[in-house]
């Protein structure tokens, strides 16, 4: 009995020890970590943060619309929206910059150059210097401020930032006030000088349907294009100036393109091409309204081809393109 009692005590001790080990293993392997409670603390950007990001949408929520053109001899920016924010997320440009918050005592000014900017200026021979000035701090833009982009700049709460472009002289634009440039031009819609020739066409309307693929959305998209009723073929046009040597301006100032989705824009100048009677393609120029081409001063007509295109900076692409359409142009 003494030997049996000893074996029984040893057996019970081993079972108890094994149970403790198994319990520890189960607790260590099967337990799920408890996520921290409370809001996520966003990373903080430096107090002098400046960046340029891609923006393929329209005016974002919480921003105010602008209609201001900032231009010089060799640059032209039409700004469409401005936001003042304490943080950044994907709805305001944080998709590239990363969700973040402004430094203590600071806020972000976010200025949007929308894809619909169709202003034009003679290109410079060399890239222009573009800086942002906040107080005594000056920083060069890390990327060009192209169509379909936005500018983020960190400023002390309530302070302003100045966008400065050095062309033939320094040109300055108040980011917070959305001013310092010139009002949106209307002279491009003025009638041409006496002597301008009209161009005629038949059925200048286009309707097409396609399917697009974006980063976050996709689906069918209906496109509408209207050439309008006005046209001008002249050596000089108001708001544009004199055409290059041996060339004429051909302008259709009322031409417009749109879609049935307000957040998806198309690029008019990329969507319409002109092939001349000699088979060569006319040069398309940017204009604040409508379509603008340069054609030979011996222009005898041509064919417009409508092929709807998204802006070059857009993330949306055609999965199925709308059918193209050709429109014959003839001088009156």
Describe this entry's structure for a reader:
- By secondary structure, this protein is mostly beta strands.
- Helix content is 11%, strand content 40%.
- It is built from three helices and 26 strands.
- The chain has a six-stranded antiparallel sheet with strand order 1-9-6-3-2-12, with no helix packed on it.
- Strand 17 (236-237) and strand 18 (241-242) form a beta hairpin.
- The longest helix has 29 residues, at 2-30.
- It is globular, with a radius of gyration of 31 Å.
- Mean pLDDT is 81; it is low at 10-39 and 181-196.
Q: Going across the biggest sheet, name each strand in turn.
A: 1-9-6-3-2-12
* Estimated radius of gyration: 31 Å
Output the number of helix runs.
3
How much is the average pLDDT? 81
Q: Please summarize the sheet with the most strands.
A: 6 strands, antiparallel
**Into which percent range does the helicity of residues fall?**
10-25%
**Shape label:** globular
Count of discrete structural domains:
2
User: By helix and strand content, what is the structural category?
Assistant: mainly beta
Number of strands: 26
Helix-strand pattern, N to C? HEEEEHEEEEEEEEEEEEEEEEHEEEEEE
Strand content: 35-45%
Low-confidence stretches: 10-39, 181-196
- N/C terminus separation: 126 Å
Gist of the model:
The chain is mainly beta and 332 residues long. It is built from three helices and 26 strands.
Overview features:
mainly beta, globular, four-stranded antiparallel β-sheet, single chain, 332 residues, 3 helices, six-stranded antiparallel β-sheet, 26 strands, 2 domains
């Amino acid at each position: 009995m003494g030997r049996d009692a000893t074996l029984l005590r040893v057996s019970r001790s081993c079972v108890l020890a094994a149970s403790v080990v198994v319990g520890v293993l189960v607790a260590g392997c099967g337990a799920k970590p408890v996520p921290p409670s409370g809001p996520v603390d966003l990373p903080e950007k430096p107090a002098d943060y400046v960046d340029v990001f891609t923006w393929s949408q329209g005016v974002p929520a919480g921003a105010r619309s602008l209609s201001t053109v900032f231009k010089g001899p060799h640059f032209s920016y039409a700004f469409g929206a401005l936001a003042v924010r304490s943080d950044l997320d994907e709805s305001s440009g944080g998709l590239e910059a990363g969700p973040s918050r402004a430094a203590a005592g600071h806020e972000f000014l976010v200025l949007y150059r929308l894809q619909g900017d169709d202003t034009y200026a003679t290109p410079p021979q060399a890239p222009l210097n573009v800086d942002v000035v906040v107080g005594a701090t000056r920083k060069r833009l890390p990327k060009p401020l192209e169509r379909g982009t936005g500018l983020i700049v960190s400023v002390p709460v309530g302070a302003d930032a100045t966008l400065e472009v050095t062309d033939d002289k320094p040109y300055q634009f108040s980011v917070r006030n959305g001013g310092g440039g010139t009002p949106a031009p209307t002279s491009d819609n003025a009638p041409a000088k006496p002597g301008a020739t009209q161009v005629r066409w038949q059925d200048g309307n286009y309707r097409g349907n396609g399917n697009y693929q974006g980063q976050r959305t996709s689906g069918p998209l209906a496109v509408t294009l209207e050439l309008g009723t006005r046209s001008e073929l002249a050596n000089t046009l108001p708001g544009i100036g004199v055409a290059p040597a041996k060339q004429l301006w051909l302008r259709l100032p009322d031409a417009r393109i749109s879609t049935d989705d307000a957040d998806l824009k198309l690029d008019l100048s990329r969507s319409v091409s002109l092939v001349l009677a000699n088979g060569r393609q006319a040069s398309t120029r940017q204009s604040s309204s409508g379509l603008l081409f340069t054609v030979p001063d011996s222009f005898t007509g041509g064919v417009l081809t409508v092929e709807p295109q998204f802006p070059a900076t857009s993330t949306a692409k055609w999965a199925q393109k709308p059918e193209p359409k050709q429109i014959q142009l003839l001088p009156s």
